[in-house]
Amino acid sequence: MRVLAVCGMGLGSSLVLKMNIEKIMEQEGIEGSVEVKDLSSIMGEQADYIFASEEIGEKIEHPAEVISVKNMTDKKEIKEKVLAAYKKL
Amino acid sequence: MILDLLQKKNIAVNVEAADWKEVVAETGKLLLEAGQIEKRYIEAMKQSIIDNGPYVVIGKGIALLHARPEDGVKENCLSLITLAEPVEFGNKNNDPVKIAFAFGTVDNEKHVKTISELSVVLMEESAVDNIAEMGSAGEILSYIEDILAQQ
User: Fold this and answer.
1) Over the stretch B104-151, which tens digit does the pLDDT of each residue have?
2) I need a surface site. Which of A88, B52, B71, B93 has the fewest CB within 10 A?
3) What is the CATH architecture of B2-149?
4) What residue in B sits closest to A74 (Cα-Cα)?
5) How far is A14 from chain B (nearest CA, A)?
6) Strand order across the B57-59 sheet
7) pLDDT over 70 percentage in chain B
8) ipTM score here?
9) Domain made up of A2-88: CATH architecture
10) What is the pTM of this model?
11) Is B66 one of the annotated active-site residues of the chain?
């Protein structure tokens, strides 16, 4: 599963999101990669899913499905969303 | 490492702030007074919220503030304030903010380890509420140290 974690600058919230998605993938034995990107550099990037905050998610135009995360520090929310995405692959 | 960057001089507890701009100013002031950023970095952090929206409120009660390396970062740095009264940032899921971190990084790589450790701390159940209640920088630092030691 190839994931992009996206925020405005690709430095802060997207990095927190990446760490937390990676942790869940590791715990669940899901193979793949999570890469941090800023909004302006996602075009042309191949991915199965894009994870972002709701505000940023609304601005994203990309062929991959965008998954909005409300609380990037909530283990439960991220786990549910990662598992649901993985099942759909 | 987070504990190399987050020192007592970079932490202030029970800070008064009337709105989100004051939260940014107070969190940034700790980095400015330590000589770690230029003054314009604080304005850049505010501008980023105006431009990109309040998604800097990454989780319940917590803001993660920053701008770009070229906005006036002198060295990698991290500060933390806890608020006397919670402040609204306009984030519909995670307001009001109780604690705010500000960081600066000189490039797109050097802060990765720090933010990684910070996300470990923030994923801990009730970490934000616990930190918000603490009365001193020393108490907060030993709490963070304990969480990281369990990993």
Assistant:
1) 999 988 899 999 999 999 999 899 999 999 999 999 999 999 999 998
2) A88
3) 3-Layer(aba) Sandwich (3.40)
4) B123
5) 9
6) B11-15, B77-87, B97-104, B62-66, B57-59
7) 100
8) 0.92
9) 3-Layer(aba) Sandwich (3.40)
10) 0.95
11) yes
